[in-house]
């Protein structure tokens, strides 16, 4: 099958550090290529892939100091896809849905994975205007605001089995990983660590739009709890893998309907249990009492941290291998592609 993967241009594929969507696009692209499909990746020039790479811009837009208007680069990307429309059986979009008008007029089957939160007031009118646009959700919970959209499947994210190594030892610290934003509730993570009496390592990116929140809300807490909290900034590569694998538990205290939560399966792959709030897709991703604990408040989270030692880290890894392998993710998407082509 001739498949195009169209990635957001904010980060490289895979990203150097933070970038969940770009990481998933990378895992999917490599798994499809390994399965024998002819895959073309439209992404940044600093991306790395076994597929054919069509570079749109030199580097991730969020890492290019000369870039201000990211939309212009994504418009160029759409033109590059359109120019090669006859080369593909299926074009799989992963970015913002401004490709809908173009995709419905070009001679290929197309699919859009919605990676973010869906809002009825915004996406509802969009999906009504484009009822024929085939969509994939990354969790069943994600589609709850708009259950009647043209959903073709729910495909949970996956990772290569060798992307992260299993760590049998239980570490002596808790970990907060991701972005420094209000919805991720880093303040909760700090409070949990303080009450649990354990060190907390925070490896989190601060986006430009979140600098004020970080300075006003998070930095005072970091200073007040400097004896137990270590802020590492954005972390990638081997350092990120070691941080996840050597943690006693990953804290995922989200305060919004998280569509998936890639860091949770990264923790499972490493054998690290997760303590997460019952929001969004968390109950779909975590197996309560096996790969972690799902909680409703800080008191329950502190109690869960005290109980993570009772969980079998090898069981966390086994659940990851059974449910979140990139090969399974690719097979799920191929089934959707075949359904589109059959129509």
Automatic annotation (TrEMBL):
<keyword id="KW-0808">Transferase</keyword>
<protein>
    <submittedName>
        <fullName>Glycosyltransferase involved in cell wall bisynthesis</fullName>
    </submittedName>
</protein>
<dbReference type="Pfam" id="PF00534">
    <property type="entry name" value="Glycos_transf_1"/>
</dbReference>
<dbReference type="InterPro" id="IPR050194">
    <property type="entry name" value="Glycosyltransferase_grp1"/>
</dbReference>
<dbReference type="GO" id="GO:0016757">
    <property type="term" value="F:glycosyltransferase activity"/>
</dbReference>
<feature type="domain" description="Glycosyl transferase family 1">
    <location>
        <begin position="171"/>
        <end position="312"/>
    </location>
</feature>
<feature type="domain" description="Glycosyltransferase subfamily 4-like N-terminal">
    <location>
        <begin position="22"/>
        <end position="119"/>
    </location>
</feature>
<dbReference type="InterPro" id="IPR028098">
    <property type="entry name" value="Glyco_trans_4-like_N"/>
</dbReference>
<dbReference type="InterPro" id="IPR001296">
    <property type="entry name" value="Glyco_trans_1"/>
</dbReference>
<dbReference type="Pfam" id="PF13439">
    <property type="entry name" value="Glyco_transf_4"/>
</dbReference>
